[in-house]
Amino acid sequence: MKHTLRTLLSLSIIILCYGCLSINTKKYSALGTWKLKRIEQQGSKAGSLNSYVAKQGELLNLFKDSTLSVLSEEAQQIGKWTINDGVLTIKAENSSTKSYEMKFSTTKSGLEILKLKDEGSGNVSVFYREALPLKDLSNEPFHPSNIQWRIKATTSESIPQLKQRLENYVKHVSLILYVAIQQKPELVSFELSQGPIRIYSSGIGKFPFAVVKPVWKNAYYSEQEAAIAYQLYENYLRDNKYTGTSTGKWVDDDYAILQSIYNGLKRDAKTDREKIAK
To answer: Are strands 112-118 and 124-131 parallel, antiparallel or unpaired?
Structure first.
């Protein structure tokens, strides 16, 4: 009987102590890609993240080198970020510094949610995790270094500069597929990466210049220079043939083809520089 009481007492202590533990022991990270789902407005003021995150589908990307990018179909912003005591502070280029209270949670299906409360307006931007951070920053499709093709040229660009911008675009699109291979092969979106590249099942082609999205054309100094860059891409597809083997998985195949195009463009650019040097 004494042993039974002692056992029950021990079990009671264990149960009581377990009840003292926090149920949610998950550790969250702000790093990675987050997609805006909605904005919970407080009062009459419209909330936004540096005037860019204002509608569903836009992306917030936070990287381990303290850089960030915010992208919509029409625009992009890059900058720096810090976190201190649960407050995310963002300093975007050509914009004032803004701070947001952070709150993480997880849906029943395991999807991570990030809520950013604007300390000024009180509006709350609700993001769902789109992708986890990669180990190698150079493989992040939305890292500032890989969205230079989106940045508006302020002066006329030479042919080598146009080729460099084209290379950056091809690399970016290939990295969209790379992330899909690494994390979610069933979910591939080119919504914020539209240009002349046309994706087929195990094949890469081109859209007619007339239907290429403005986000790609408008990044060039003029439509004439955008047309020249398009011609460079078209010529490469015409003059080069991909010799790799098919895996039967279109994401893997198209990634390999785009990497081949990217490397070929870089190789051609190097050859052009060598000819000029002579």
So the answer is: antiparallel
